[in-house]
Specification:
Blueprint: E1 3-6, H1 13-22, E2 31-34, H2 45-54, E3 59-61, H3 65-75, H4 87-90, H5 95-103, E4 109-111, E5 116-118, H6 129-143, H7 148-154, H8 169-182, E6 185-186, E7 192-193, E8 208-209, E9 222-225, E10 239-241, E11 251-256, E12 263-268
Parallel strand pairs: 1-2, 2-3, 5-9, 9-10
Antiparallel strand pairs: 1-11, 4-5, 6-7, 6-8, 11-12
Helix pairs in contact: 6-8
């Protein structure tokens, strides 16, 4: 059995199919891990969502910020942006089935057998893996409940921007969501800088990529993440980046995880949008 982790597809279905052909993916025996942002901005969000859902137990996916945006727009708790490509999903006859499946997906996927953990964006430096999994379950539980619309209505916002064990309610869930689906930079004390989106070196003084913070509690964990197309390939600090900027004319990346040494495979993507 081969295990591949794949970066942000964002509706680039043709690129995904090309990548799967390149790795000779066999759904009856192989497994795919998707790092979130299955949909939006690319040309085939509906087909991508249907395809990944249809893989069943042959695929695991974590939620990304664009996936949550889809749920919020569908529920009337966010406004679609001019560059969004979500209308096909929202008008599809199987819309409700697809959206219900999506909100059942986790924020974090940990596989003890391989020793890898996959998230969409980042983790605050003070959380160890056990804590991160526990915090994620708080969000997952409400997303999977009948109260998920209340969560979507209160999900957006940049604050609070620092963890405190005393955080409660929507502030607590919003912080967890922002870390797992939006984080790139923070400071030594875990203060988030969600406005910085460029490559390392472009961030405000005092902030570093979340995985470069000294003493990070998950520094011994092997973590896979997407979300950061401007970062480029990064295999340092026990982390592996997955977002090759497919949407921006870069590449769709996969990493094979079941070998002694992780192996990268990618396929170039036609530029669909320009930064």
């Amino acid at each position: 059995m081969a295990i591949y982790a794949i970066g942000d597809v964002q509706g680039c279905q043709s690129s995904l199919l090309e990548l799967l052909e390149r790795i000779n993916f066999i759904p009856e025996q192989d497994v795919l891990w998707f790092a979130g942002d299955l949909v939006n901005r690319g040309p085939d969000s509906l087909d991508t969502l249907r395809f990944v859902k249809g893989l069943g137990k042959s695929a695991f996916t974590v939620l990304g910020n664009h996936d949550l945006h889809l749920l919020a727009v569908a529920g009337g708790y966010a406004t679609a942006h001019s560059e969004d490509t979500l209308s096909g999903i929202l008008q599809a006859p199987d819309r409700d089935e697809l959206l219900d499946w999506l909100r059942m997906q986790p924020l974090i996927h940990h596989d003890p057998a391989s020793g890898y953990t996959m998230i969409h964006a980042g983790l605050p430096p003070q959380w160890d893996l056990r804590t991160a999994i526990t915090r994620c379950r708080e969000v997952e539980d409400i997303l999977r409940s009948s109260h998920y619309t209340d969560y979507l209505a209160n999900m957006y916002g940049k604050y609070p921007d620092q963890w405190d064990d005393k955080l409660e309610g929507w502030d607590r869930l919003r912080y967890i969501t922002n870390c797992l689906t939006r984080l790139r930079y923070c400071d030594e004390n875990g203060l988030l800088c969600l406005s910085a989106k460029g490559a390392p070196g472009s961030q405000p003084d005092g902030f570093k990529p979340w995985f470069e913070i000294a003493g990070r509690a998950t520094s011994s964990e092997r973590i896979l993440f997407g979300h950061w197309s401007t970062l480029g390939i990064c295999d340092d600090h026990n982390i592996h980046s997955l977002d090759g900027g497919c949407l921006w004319g870069g590449s769709l990346c996969a990493i094979r995880l079941d070998l002694k040494t992780a192996v990268r495979i990618s396929t170039s993507c036609p530029e669909w949008r320009s930064i």
